Amino acid sequence: MEIILLQDVNKLGQKDDIVHVKDGYGTNFLIPNGYAIAATSSAKKMHTENLKQRAHKEEKIKANAQETASKLAEVSLSIGAKTSSSGKIFGSVNTIQIAEALKEKGFDIDRKSITLPEDQIKEVGKYKAVIKLHREVKVEVEFEIVAE
User: Fold this and answer.
1) Fewer CB near the last or first residue (10 Å), C or N of the chain?
2) Taking Cα atoms as reference points, which of 99, 88, 72, 74 lies closest to residue 121?
3) CATH of the domain at 63
4) Closest to 135 in 3D by CA, of 73, 54, 55, 62
5) What is the pTM of this model?
6) Do both 49 and 115 map to the same domain?
7) Residues near 86 by Cβ (< 8 Å), separated by ≥ 6?
8) Contact indicator for 72, 131 with CB cutoff of 8 Å
9) For residue range 10-39, what is the model confidence (pLDDT) as tens digits?
10) CA distance to 46, 96, 122, per residue, from 102 (Å)
11) DSSP one-letter code for 117
């Protein structure tokens, strides 16, 4: 039996793959649970058309992400934190503070897409954060932690 996967199935394939499975596995498990649909000729035509449209949309999204990445590469942030006399930060700097600083500069970036070099930044200095804008587009943003 030939099926089109609607979502990733472990040890079988990724979403939108057309795979061959045993009849019982397809009709009794994959199709009733919503993991797949039968790959009839009309379903295959709809599948190829959906892939074409999705590819076109993905190109636009990727182009927008690359444009934003080029603007973000030029941005440098300064984040104020309360520190001791030796330069240690009371608490730590996290992705929420970086996202807020980017929002002040005019970039609306989700904090979950920001990755810090270390788990917690606890000293004054310069660091780099990696921002994932798209599956294929990542950009490094420099930020500096300064004492308030």
Assistant:
1) C
2) 88
3) 3.40.5.10
4) 62
5) 0.65
6) no
7) none
8) yes
9) 889 888 899 999 999 999 999 999 999 999
10) 41, 10, 20
11) S
